[in-house]
Write a structure and sequence with these properties.
The chain is of the alpha+beta class. It is globular.
């Protein structure tokens, strides 16, 4: 009887392994060889950029849309920014709405920036960069959390996970922008594409007011094609033209 019980317990534990791995993907593989990635990816990436008049090393800007599972990479061309490519987000966790506290498994929404210290070529998630959560707005609202990234390996417990091929291109573009003198790369994360029509569908949502605040920053970029200067005044984001 004891042997039978032990076998049943062991079978139950084995059955739980895939579930545990999905919920807690702590170790997912070794880090990328950044030198190898550069050698393999950079020539094709440079050619793709040059084909539409863009340059690796130009100031970069990223927009993220949860509902559509899309990440856009923009590069400066002259005074304005031009869309280079839209990448499919392989995975993110949680629902529409901001991250509130450590462990809530929410991917953040808001206005972030990536500096040189945020780049991690030795990530266990292939390559990664830290979004800088909590930002000044999050801190003003007592939101907590750490290590919120854009990374590879297609697994997420609060981050925005890309395919390895996707993060390789995105990482090289962000790295080149920072290496070429850029102070940071803005990353704006939205619940959905912030059209007036889409936002109006959320009038009864508890986050409607917050999303309306995000929309002001979204709209300014849509008009000017230059990332706005973002600050926090009181308990809200405030935006000034980046031109």
């Amino acid at each position: 009887m004891r042997l039978l019980i032990a076998l049943l317990v062991m079978a139950a534990l084995i059955a739980l392994v895939p579930v545990v791995r999905k919920l807690y993907p702590v170790v997912v593989g070794s880090s990328a060889d950044l030198a190898e990635v550069r050698q393999r990816v950079e020539p094709t990436l440079t050619a793709q950029l040059e084909a539409i008049g863009l340059e690796l090393g130009a100031p970069a800007f990223i927009r993220i849309f949860k509902e559509e599972s899309e990440l856009e990479v923009w590069l400066q061309q002259g005074e304005r920014f031009q869309l280079f490519k839209t990448y499919d987000i392989c995975n993110f966790s949680g629902d529409l709405g901001p991250k509130l506290k450590e462990g809530d498994r929410q991917s953040p929404e808001g206005f972030y920036s990536v500096g040189r210290s945020a780049m991690n070529p030795n990530s266990s998630y292939h390559l990664s960069f830290n979004l800088g959560f909590p930002n000044a707005y999050d801190q003003r609202h007592q939101r907590t959390g750490s290590f919120l990234m854009v990374h590879g390996k297609c697994v997420s417990i609060g981050c925005y996970a890309m395919t390895d091929a996707g993060i390789e291109e995105i990482y090289l573009i962000v790295e080149a922008a920072l290496t070429n003198g850029g102070k940071d790369v803005p990353v704006h994360a939205f619940p959905f594409r912030m059209t007036s029509e889409r936002l109006s569908e959320e009038q009864d949502n508890a986050w409607f007011g917050y999303w309306a605040n995000l929309k002001a920053g979204y709209d300014l970029f849509e008009v000017e094609r230059v990332p706005p200067i973002v600050s926090v005044v009181g308990r809200a984001y405030q935006f000034v033209s980046g031109i």
